[in-house]
Amino acid sequence: MQLVELTTYLIAQCEDAQNRFFHMREFDLKPDFFTEVKPYADTVHEQLKLWRQLAKEWRASYQPKYMHNQQIDQVVEAMEQFTVQSFYKETSKKRFLQSIHSVHYTLSTILRYLEEGEAYEQQKDDDF
Question: Considering the entire predicted model, what is its pTM?
């Protein structure tokens, strides 16, 4: 399922952003916006657009408890921001980390729902 792969990819991007943020701060680095930041942010943005569409379709089909379209939108908005912010040491550490943790939690919850749904579907198939 493509949604599982994209969700796993975005979780990895959260971890990469956090690692990049600390690396940029530790070594006092300044990225070039057009050669480093923009191409990376554009790639993540394209993946987020696809993920949003798939996640909303999945949510409409399966209607998982405690998961709403607003949360999906918040993941996309927050990731678009902290992906770029991770390159800059001037970013507020507390707010940056809170955003990453919030997004990571939501993505992990969705991934868990997806995996539980796949296990349920597999069990149904095995019963027949």
Answer: 0.90
Contact at 8 Å (CB) between 87 and 36?
yes
- The per-residue DSSP string of 23-67 comes to HHHHTT----IIIIIHHHHHHHHHHHHHHHHHHHHHHHHH--TT-
**Residue 48 near residue 80, CB atoms below 8 Å:** yes
Domain boundaries, the chain: 2-127
Q: Count CA atoms within 13 Å of residue 33 on its CB side.
A: 1
Decide if 7 contacts 59 (C-beta within 8 A): no
- Axis crossing angle, helix 93-127 with helix 38-62, rounded to the nearest 10: 40
Which of 68, 69, 94 shows the shortest CA–CA distance to 82? 94
CATH number at 2-127: 1.20.120.440
Instruction: Give the pLDDT confidence of 42-68 residue by residue, as tens digits.
Output: 999 999 999 999 999 999 999 888 899
Residue whose tokens read 């990819």: 9
Dist CA 77 CA 126 (whole Å): 40
